[in-house]
Amino acid sequence: MQKKFGKPANYPRLKGLNKKYPQITVVQRKSTDKGPSFGEQFHTDSSYTKKPPRYTMLLSKLVPKKGVANTDFSSQYLAYEKLSKNYKNKLKKLKGIYSSHGPISITTVEREKEKGKISKELISRHKIIRTIKNKKTIYCSPGHFLKFNTHMTKQKKELKKFLFNHQTKKTFQYSLEWEKDQLTIWDNRAMLHQATPFKGNRILHRITIL
Ligand SMILES: [Fe+2]
Prior knowledge:
It contains 4 helices and 12 strands. By secondary structure, it is of the alpha+beta class. The strands form 4 sheets. A 4-stranded antiparallel beta sheet has the order 1-12-2-10, with no helix packed on it. A 3-stranded antiparallel beta sheet has the order 9-3-11. A hairpin with a 2-residue loop joins strand 6 (129-132) and strand 7 (135-138). The chain is globular, with a radius of gyration of 17 Å. Fe (ii) ion binds at residues 39, 43, 45, 193.
């Protein structure tokens, strides 16, 4: 795999599967779990790291009935293409600042607080508009977003609201219905994803690739 796609990344926030495969992260939901599932808001994986992984792979080991626990994707190539010239210009000057304790992690951080063991906050900044092989895309992870790298004036707050709404328009989305032993890989730089809320048992194995 190393030769074909790149180097598997170490995920800073969860323990690996075992000693042999430390870079496989187990994403598990139990039917007894309360609160939101892991990843239940649109995001790109590890945007709070200096060099976020290019690709994410998920392999389904245990899934509920088809259509119950989907993963939604939103194409950010398409989202960029559909931006007006005015917004393209506004956004190209900006960077986003992302945190591992961002909005998507609130429940995790709360649980950590209860245990008295809060993980170290990781923060990184990245350009909102980036180019991948000559194609422009929006790179902004709402689940980890703290602010733009500029004073958050009223206009900037409105711009943020517009951007988040625009990025996740239904017309840019695809909803994946999991089946058992299904492998999914996507470009983490040009695609947002989120887990849909559900009650039940699910086990996914994840590898992110630098
Ligand atoms: Fe994710």
